[in-house]
Sequence to fold (225 residues):
Amino acid sequence: DSGVTQTPKHLITATGQRVTLRCSPRSGDLSVYWYQQSLDQGLQFLIQYYNGEERAKGNILERFSAQQFPDLHSELNLSSLELGDSALYFCASSVAAGGLDTQYFGPGTRLTVL
Amino acid sequence: EDQVTQSPEALRLQEGESSSLNCSYTVSGLRGLFWYRQDPGKGPEFLFTLYSAGEEKEKERLKATLTKKESFLHITAPKPEDSATYLCAVQATNTGNQFYFGTGTSLTVIP
Fold:
């Protein structure tokens, strides 16, 4: 158990819908990272927040958005869902802002878009 | 285009048979190279961070090395519990400290 929690574990929804994935980092960690893992593209970095501020941004679609709240939990919002958005979404956390310290990954949320 | 390539895609070893996994990268401005282990259906588990060419790190049966354009993960006398997918990732300064992952090497160690 990494200490990072993600909810829900599984999510099944339809095309065009909007969902919110939630992540609680390890106690004391200020950085939260979001990743998408699909069978055809592997693990893709989406975005990093540090203490509420966006720190680094990957190839995150405009339909996706994220934020980190004052209590440091983070949410990833996915809207206008397409079949290709079906994937495992991982959240990770670390102490520092720079990204070089150890990232601890959560168990993931499996999103299925029908 | 920044890219991370891992080889081989899959590797089957007999227990005790040592081997190496390769990760080559073409990013400009390497901040760090990371190795992770991922078991099926679980999140990646951190193994090592390497920062500069010539650096080596070890943990139990694993040893990671870094050159200017590639990294190797050496597995010495593997055991069945080492079976997993091993992921390599880099963080690049020239693209705002983004992370790029390879598609992984799936390792199976046969008793």
